[in-house]
Amino acid sequence: MTKGSSRAEQKQATRTALVDCARKLFVEHGYTATTADMIAKAVGVSRATFYLHFRTKAEIVREHMREREEAILAAYRGLDDIEEPTLDSVTAWLVDHVAYWRAHRAEFAVMEQALANEQAVSDEWFGMLERVSARMRNLLDRQPDAEARSLAQVRFMSMLMSTDRNLQFTVVQGHDENLTAVVRVLAEQWLHCMRS
After folding, report:
1. Are residues 70 and 21 in the same domain?
2. pLDDT single digits (tens) 41-73
3. Which of 60, 96, 185, 194 has an alpha carbon within 20 to 30 A of 24's alpha carbon?
4. DSSP letter string over the chain?
5. Residues 36 and 68 in one domain
6. Residue 85 CB: number of other CB atoms within 10 A?
7. Spatial contact of 75 and 100, defined as CB atoms under 8 Å apart
């Protein structure tokens, strides 16, 4: 423990170091190849110390996803805030969203590996998509009744999942030879969803 720091501060510093190091190792080696031992060793602590902070490495990914949630929500609020959506305005939003995915490509790749291997991570991602879709006030508030609102939220959730999968393959995995066309098709689908 460093001079002047409390036990709680030292514990938080160790936790932060584990998270930061894990993220780097996940990007460098992949989620599945990175072990708790590797993370602990890279930080200079024991494996037991790792397990004092996290039960599994999936908890680190879930924590990172929770940290990203506000930025993802803000992005979709930008879409929801388009008062009179047009194909051009929705396409412009998507182009910005693609740029966000590009900027965080390595992180999304790690999340994808974790999603495929950890039910808790998959549940966290699905829960985040549900929370984002539930907070699309403009889209939901213009619905005439509870049934229509519920259906609109399901449409929005479906489009969130579709956008996620499309950007995972085109941006993260590099199958972007048809990215312009994919953006166009997604924009058309979003526009239909927003006008329904």
Report:
1. no
2. 999 999 999 999 999 999 999 988 998 899 999
3. 96
4. --TT--HHHHHHHHHHHHHHHHHHHHHHH-TTT--HHHHHHHHT--HHHHHHH-SSHHHHHHHHHHHHHHHHHHHHHHHHT-SS--HHHHHHHHHHHHHHHHHTHHHHHHHHHHHHH-HHHHHHHHHHHHHHHHT-HHHHHTSSSHHHHHHHHHHHHHHHHHHHHHHIIIIIS---TTHHHHHHHHHHHHHHHHH-
5. no
6. 21
7. yes
| Amino acid 5: pLDDT | 73
Domain of 107? 58-195
The answer to whether residues 76 and 172 belong to one domain is: yes
Do residues 101 and 189 share a domain? yes
Q: Looking at the chain, how many residues does it have?
A: 196
